[in-house]
Structure formats: C-alpha cells, structure tokens
Amino acid sequence: MRLLLALFLTATAFAAPKPNIVFLLADDLGYGDLGCYGQKKIKTPSIDKLATQGLRFTSCYSGNTVCAPSRCVLYTGRDAGHARIRGNFARAGGLPGPKVGQTVHRANLLAEDTTVAAVLSKSGYRTALVNKWHLDGFDPKAGPLDRGFDEFKGWLVSAPNTYASAYWPTQRFDQRNLKDVPGNLGGKHGSHNTTLTVDEAIGFLDQPKTEPFLLVVAFSAPHDPWEPPNQGAYASESWTDPQKSYAALTTHLDTEVGRFLSHLDSKGLDENTVVFFASDNGAAQSAPREFFNSCAGLRGCKGDLYEGGIRVPMIVRWPGQVQTGKTSDAVWSFVDFMPTALEMAEAEYDGDLDGSSVLDLIKSGNPRERDRLYYWEFPEKELTQAAREGKWKVVRPAKNAPLELYDLSADPNESKDVAKDHPELIAHFEDEMKAHREASEYWPD
User: Fold this and answer.
1) Which residues neighbour 428 within 8 Å (Cβ) at sequence distance 6 or greater?
2) Options 67, 72, 295, 301, the catalytic residue
3) 256-279: buried (b, 16+ CB within 10 Å) or exposed (e) per residue?
4) How would you classify residue 37: left for phi > 0, otherwise alpha for psi between -120 and 50, otherwise beta?
5) What whole-number distance in Å separates Cα of residue 147 and Cα of residue 329?
C-alpha cells in the first residue's frame, strides 16, 4: 500500500501542469493587414514576431462574417447552423435597443448555452474576459459573468455609456461594477481603449494564482471609428486621414499586443501558456481595404461569406509544443476552439459541439487525414450560406440562389464558379447543408 501511494505521489509530482490558454482577438482586422500575412504599408512588428515564435495558419476561418455570431461560435463550439446568435441584429424576437439613432433587436446567449469558459471554470481554471463581449444583446443579465467567466472588465452592449465613445469610454465594467474612466471624462481623450484593455489584461496576469487560466483579450481595434491615440509614423504620409488613422490604429494594436506578450513572458508564464491570435472576421467594407490590400486579394469582406469575409489570420504560440516559424495550410475554424481548449485542459463535456479538437493540427501543422465539412450562414438580411470541405467551397450569395462552387486550391480568390462542371458535388453540398442547420426563432426562414 505504501509503495502504491509513493508511486502515485511521484507520478503526480511529475505530471505536466495544465496549460494556460490566452486568446487575443482583434476586431475587423483583415486577413492581409499584418506584415506576416503580406501587408506592406502597415507596420505590425510585434504580431509578426509572434508568428516567428509559433505556427501561422493560412486557412483558418472565423465563426461568421460579423462580430456577434463569430464570437458565439468561438465561445460555444456550435457553428452557424446551430448557434444561438447568427447575426448582429435579429429579424424576430430579441430585445430592442438603440443603434445609431434607430431601434434594433438583438439576440443574446441564454443560460442554457454552455461556453468554453463555463466548462473550464468547472475543471479548475480561472476564466477571464477583457473588453468586448458582444453576446449580451440588450440583456444586462447576459454578460460574461452570467455565461461562465469568473472575471470581466470591459464594455457591454446593454450599457451604452461603456461604448458610446468606442475608443475613449467614459465608463467601464469592473466585474459588475460600472466605474468612471477619469482620463476620458469631460470630453478628454486620456485613456485609449486598446491601452485600457492591455492594462486590464496585465492586471489579471499579475493576480496570484494557484490554478491554470483562460484569458480572452478581445480588442475593439481596428473596428471603426478609426480613432488612434495619434497618427504616429503615418502622420507625414501622403495618404488620406482615414488611411493614416486606420494604419495607426492597427499599429497601436500591435504595440499593445507586444506589451502584453512581453509582460506574460517576463512573469515566466510563456513556457506553459498557449497563445492564440486571430481576428473575428474580415476587414470592414468601409475600411480603406483596397489601399492596404487588407483582404490580401481574397474576394469579399466583412458581411460576405466569400473568403475575404471569413478567412482570418491565426497564429498559435506554445513553446515546446508548437513548431516555430512555420506555416500551415491546415483548414480549421473558430468552431474548433472550444473542443481544442477542452482537450488541452483535459476537461470533460458531454454536450453538443459542432467542432472537433485541432490539437493535433496545432502540434504538427499537418492537414487532417480526412476532410470535414465546415458550414456558415448569415441570415441578417436574407439567408446567405457557405460551406467548405477539403479544397472545395460553395457559396449561396443570396436567398434561394444556386450554389456557386470554387476549387480553393487552384482559385483562392473565388473568381471561377465551376458548379456546372460538378453537379454531383453541388448535390452533395446541398444535402449536407440542409441536414446541418436548424431553424432559428431570431432569424426565421
């Protein structure tokens, strides 16, 4: 008995600790807005450095083509065919509230919607979200603290004062307490949102902890309005003011990401922390995306289900576990993050998930042996749909329109619709997509 106990204690002592998980999420950052993804005009040295320290994926997809539904997929592991939130604005139901001088309706995550934070929290993780949640709709009882996170600092849709001035907020949540931001009171611009976000994320890192943690740092940049602290190195460029401001806002995001990572590393947390960096969707239509080639030549942008709207930068750093300075074209999506995080944390969950763990892809960088189908829909105005399986992708650009078919291995820009040449593939995708989705009360068919 004593021998067995000694062996158990020895095995426990040498068991690898569960990794910390950090997800850095940019807002409306285009696939081509980073130097490591081909950007030539905007400087992003910190994120480029992160790419050399980890694995850079070239075929990773967001959960959807706009903010709220993409984050819903990320946090719940349910894709757009099953997710609670499938658009920023509901066409039926939801709660009413203001948006640019008019009344809109928004859906929100319900208590029965299980998030990755809820599962990890029950598995011994400390979970925190900083800055943007965007899944509360107009329900003040549907914030991150109500949906699995232990800690929250930032802004909510249900509290207009926290985001009325996107980059210079006058109020901000600290847990459930709404506090003034002194540097921005009286019309002052003293505390920029991106800097506040990293200050709060660093504050979380500095807390004494005995348990592993999940930390989501959900930036607001470079979502419009483009209000950087200043135009910095771009002020002297012969560009338009929007172009200078967009570039400066993106570079400021990069600088603050670098400050956060430097602090993480200085505390000795880097060795057992896996860091994800991604954008929630493609570059906005109103952004100076053509000037900067923000979509890297991909068709479409935010709001579209073509590649420019849903293919996003994804970098994963995990010292000793992930190859450094490598690039992978393995296909995966936000829907895979929750099952991946659960496998990393050795957490059990018997609920429904549409994604699957990509821990093997992250560690090896190699594509799967067998292709799987990924599905998106965006029903905010009318039902548009897309799906990818292997090299093939279909897009339904308008309600009841025939499916377009693209061979992404030969045509990543989706310039040649080959649907007429492959009727059997069209039939396959039609069947799969029909079986894959459930109707939504907020976006009725």
Assistant:
1) none
2) 67
3) bbbbbbeebeeeebbebbbbbbbb
4) alpha
5) 33
Strand partners, 333: 61
Question: Which domains does the chain show, CATH number per domain?
Answer: 17-369 (3.40.720.10)
Q: Out of 82, 134, 192, 223, which one is annotated catalytic?
A: 134
Place of tokens 């499938």: 86
Distance CA 152, CA 165 (A): 20
* Residue 15: predicted pLDDT: 61
Q: What is the pLDDT of residue 12?
A: 42
Please name the amino acid found at residue 129: L
Predicted local confidence at residue 350, as pLDDT? 93
- Beta-ladder partners of 276: 23, 316
Q: How many CB atoms lie within 10 A of CB 169?
A: 24
Collect all residues with Cβ–Cβ distance below 8 Å to 5 and sequence separation of at least 6.
none
Per-block mean pLDDT, blocks of 10 residues, the chain (445 long): 38 69 98 98 98 97 98 98 97 93 95 98 98 97 98 96 87 97 95 98 96 98 97 97 98 98 97 98 97 98 98 98 95 98 97 96 83 95 96 97 98 98 98 95 93
Known active-site residue 67 = yes
